Amino acid sequence: MKAKLLDLIDAGREKEEQALVPFVDDSAPESPGKWTAKDQLAHLMSWRQVAIGELDSARTGGPVPDVSTDDDAENLKFYAQTHDQPARVIVESAAGSWDAMAVAVSACSEETLEGPRPRYPNQKLWSVVPLNVYNHVAQHLAYWSWDQGDEAGAEQAATWGHDLAIATFPDDRTRGAAEYNLACIYAQRGMAERALPLLERGFELRPDLREWAKTDTDLDPIRSNPELVALLS
C-alpha cells in the first residue's frame, strides 16, 4: 500500500503543479469573495496539512488535528488564514506540503496505514491520502477551470481523478466511490445529465453510498431532479 500511496502523491503533485500553480499570482479576485488560483491552491494545501497531521497522529500517538467536522467552517478559516499571504509564500508552502505528505507516508508502517484514521476511525488511515491527492485536487481543478471558461480543462481534471482512482484501486468499492465523486463534480455545476448515470453506477457498486447521497450537499443543485429522487428512493 505504501508504494501505491507514494505514487499517488507524485501524480497529484504533478497535476497540481501543471494545471494550477502556473496561474497563481497576487491578482485580486474578479469579484469579492470569489476564489483566485492562489486561494484554490491554499485551500488544497491546508487540507493536505490536516491529512499529514492525521498520518503523524496515527503513527506517533500524538494529538489529532483540531479540525471541525463542519467543512464549510474550516474552509472559511483556511481562507482567512491564507488569502492575504503572497502568492510566492503559498506556492512554496504547497510544495512543502507535498514533501511533508510523502515523508509522513514513508514513516508509517504498512500496519499503521491499514489501521484506523484518527478523525474517522471507521476508515483506514491510508484513505486520507487518495482523498487529498486526487479526489480533492480533481474537484477543485475542475471547478476552477469551469470558472475560467475552460470546459475542456475542467472535463480533463474531473476525469483524471476518476481514472487514477480506478487504475490504482480497481475493486468495486473504489470504483463505486470514483463514479460517485465524479458525479458530484458534475452535480455541483447542475449537470444532471452527466451526474445521474455515474450515480446509478456508483450505487450499483457501492449501495452504501445511496444513504450518504440523501444528505450530501454536493448533490443539492440537482436534488429536485425526478431521476435523482427515484434513485434515492
Task: Provide the descriptors you would attach to this structure in a database record.
Four Helix Bundle (Hemerythrin (Met), subunit A), 233 residues, mainly alpha, 11 helices, 2 domains
What this model shows, in words?
This protein is mainly α and 233 residues long. The protein has 2 domains: 2-155, Up-down Bundle (Four Helix Bundle (Hemerythrin (Met), subunit A)); 170-233, no CATH class. It has helices at residues 2-19, 37-60, 71-82, 87-107, 110-113, 128-147, 151-168, 172-188, 192-205, 209-213, 226-232. The longest helix is centred in the N-terminal third of the chain and has 24 residues, at 37-60. The protein is globular.
- Structural class per helix/strand content? mainly alpha
At the fold tier of CATH, the topology name of the largest domain is: Four Helix Bundle (Hemerythrin (Met), subunit A)
Strand content range: under 5%
Helix content: 55-70%
Q: Specify the biggest β-sheet.
A: none
Poorly predicted residue ranges: none
Q: How many helices? A: 11
Number of domains: 2
Provide the CATH top-level class of the largest domain.
Mainly Alpha
Task: Report the end-to-end length measured between terminal Cα atoms.
Answer: 37 Å
CATH-level-4 superfamily name of the largest domain: dinb family like domain
CA-based shape: globular
Give the number of DSSP strands: 0
Tell me the Rg in angstroms. Answer: 18 Å
The SSE string, one letter per element, is: HHHHHHHHHHH
Assembly state here? single chain
The name of the CATH architecture of the largest domain is Up-down Bundle
Let me know the average pLDDT: 94
